[in-house]
Amino acid sequence: xxxxxxxxxxxMAGGLNDVSKFADVLVKGVSIDTRKIEQGNLFxxxxxxxxxxxxxxxxxxxxxxxxxALWQKDVPNPPEDxxxxxxxxxxxxxxxxxRSYRNSLDVKxxxxxxxxxxxxxxxxxxxxxxxxxxxxxxxxxxxNHLGLxxxxxxxxxxxxxxxxxxxxxxxxxxxxxTEMGRPDAVIITNIGExxxxxxxxxxxIADAKLEIISGLKDNGLxxxxxxxxxxxxxxxxxxxxxxxxxxxxxxDNDVYPVNVEPMENGNKFTTNLGDQVFELPVLGxxxxxxxxxxxxxxDFFSVPFDKMNDGxxxxxxxxxxxxxSEGAHGEKIINDAYNASPTSMNxxxxxxxxxxxxxxxxxxLGDMLELGPLEEEYHYKVGSSLDAGKIDYVFTxxxxxxxxxxxxxxVLGDDxxxxxxxxxxxxxxxxxxxxxxxxVLVKASRGMALEEVVNALQx
Length: 459
Description:
The chain is an alpha/beta fold. Helices cover 32% and strands 21% of the residues. It folds into 3 domains: 3-97, MurE/MurF, N-terminal domain (Udp-n-acetylmuramoylalanyl-d-glutamate--2,6- Diaminopimelate Ligase, Chain: A, domain 1, 3-Layer(aba) Sandwich), CATH 3.40.1390.10; 105-313, Mur-like, catalytic domain (UDP-N-acetylmuramoyl-L-alanine:D-glutamate ligase, 3-Layer(aba) Sandwich); 323-458, Mur ligase, C-terminal domain (Protein-Tyrosine Phosphatase, Chain A), CATH 3.90.190.20. It has helices at residues 6-13, 57-62, 90-104, 118-129, 147-153, 173-181, 196-199, 202-209, 229-235, 286-300, 308-313, 342-353, 375-384, 402-412, 423-431, 451-458, and strands at 3-5, 26-28, 30-31, 42-43, 68-72, 84-87, 108-113, 135-137, 161-165, 185-188, 221-225, 243-247, 257-263, 266-271, 274-280, 323-326, 332-336, 360-366, 393-397, 417-420, 438-443. The strands form 5 sheets. A 6-stranded parallel beta sheet has the order 8-9-7-10-11-12, sandwiched between helices. Strands 16-17-21-18-19-20 form a 6-stranded mixed beta sheet, with helices on both faces. It has a 4-stranded parallel beta sheet with strand order 3-4-5-6. The longest helix is centred in the first third of the chain and has 15 residues, at 90-104. The mean pLDDT is 95. ATP binds at residues 114-120. Its main location: cytoplasm. Residues 320-446 form the Mur ligase C-terminal domain. Its EC number is 6.3.2.10.
């Protein structure tokens, strides 16, 4: 993590006041949350509509372990007897501090974006690179205009490769993040329907994701899903210095899977690049594609293919992403409740539909958010596309998911589909239908908090 004197921090963050009397104060890392401050942190307060972090500055420095704090210029009465750096805007100062620190490090960077799968791909890429390098990666969901700077400021000076997830909700955000991170290689996992509400079309989403290339260093690597026409169309006339590499199912890609064989907790597969068998302990054929993207990135940094199985073997995905667990009645639960879009939901349903070894398959599906004016139609299509011979019951939660239930009833019938607005009622009914030969998929957008259903099954 960043370790600098207060004088250096002030210079890097654009400090406006004289901090010379606190020149000996040492800053170790940063925090934006008073509940998570560690000894020596620089506390960064934000002035919000409901609360103002500046009111906690004095307490966190005197009693909370922080060594110093930023202070936004338009907030009155900065404490003059404490190590406080006055800046024009605390958010901009955090970002500028991160930019300056990143530029001071001798670190390689992989930037990852996409509508679905970017966190899983981040975890895979970091594990493969760790077979040769000292690696750090974005923690949790720290992938936005605040999270990415914090991730950069957490990098150790001896870190050799940083794997940075870059998220967005509107045009221009990824461009801002990638120019801060300055990646040596970038991955675009896919183009889905997430953010249709903000961007309006898949074409606009593709344009926004491709912003990640603007921060790419000269002679870097651009890895993208080659089966996506929107990406192919936009990159066919690419004139930059980066090398283009594609992954996907089509044999037109630079790397594609062959000889896929299911395992209990994932898949074995080979690729067109050789006969080596890779064992991926993550459920879902779509995750093989994420693995291929990670493999291309690792290969770019000279990680041998024969070392990559070691990286896959030690893989632990960020919570609630195809997480396999067991319920109180012996049922198996796939917890994929962190996020959802039509693309990722259909992929997860397809996985469950084609799993062998279970006599009963149940879907617990919640609302997919931020899909724009066609949201009800997207939900309905998820339900109406189900295979009645492969799915036994469907439980839905949320207002939008009533459309999933409507579509599912046309395929499965009324007696196999249950729609709820109360998670406890859903859980109580669900428990009546599970046994040791049941597999349950739980999936929805993050705002639906469907992990509560998983917890109820495990009680």
